[in-house]
Design a protein that fits this description.
By secondary structure, this protein is mainly alpha-helical. The protein is built from five helices and no strands. The protein is globular and about 55 Å long.
Length: about 180
């Protein structure tokens, strides 16, 4: 996956307006997540419930929702925010991706991010819904919330990656996803 990362915002276009800085930070967070995932086993445990692959699926699920909502708003359609309890939606985010490979999930994240990047900088964009029953956010704030959410998961994947590398090296295996030994 790491060699297929490319530009996560869909090209070299610089977004205009007040959201440009937040979008650039979100671009970086998405890229960091994809690199962290590529550099560890998708089955490495992140916590008691999720693996690295599950975290990637979770982020892709929520990013696809963000993409749908901002694209709907940018196209003048009513947005369709997710409905349900947060815990149920998070469980669904992992379950819905069970049959997908990590590369397929990463591609879904990249696609969603390209949609977000194109739509969120539209000057006419109003408040962005997150989930039915929660408050909507102005674009810059929504970008900040999403960026922080992804950064938190990047840190958890990196910790899992560090532990996975230590365990792998201790068993005499490769030190990283490149296959090079320590």
């Amino acid at each position: 996956m790491a060699d297929r990362l490319g530009q996560v915002n869909g090209g070299d276009r610089a977004p205009a307006g007040a959201c440009a800085a937040r979008l650039a930070e979100l671009d970086a967070a998405v890229h960091q997540l994809l690199v962290a995932v590529a550099n560890t086993s998708p089955d490495a445990p992140v916590d008691d419930a999720w693996t690295v692959r599950d975290v990637l699926a979770h982020i892709a699920f929520w990013h696809e929702s963000f993409a749908r909502n901002v694209d709907d708003l940018a196209q003048g359609r009513p947005p369709r925010p997710l409905r349900g309890r947060l815990a149920d939606l998070n469980a669904r985010s992992v379950a819905d991706a069970r049959d997908l490979t990590p590369d397929e999930i990463a591609d879904r994240l990249r696609t969603a991010h390209a949609i977000v990047s194109a739509a969120v900088v539209k000057p006419s964009l109003g408040l962005i819904p997150y989930r039915v029953g929660s408050r909507p956010y102005p674009p810059e704030e929504h970008l900040t919330v999403v960026r922080d959410h992804i950064r938190a998961h990047v840190r958890s994947v990196e910790r899992a990656s560090d532990a996975w590398r230590r365990d792998t090296v201790n068993r005499g295996g490769p030190a990283d996803a490149s296959g090079l030994s320590a």
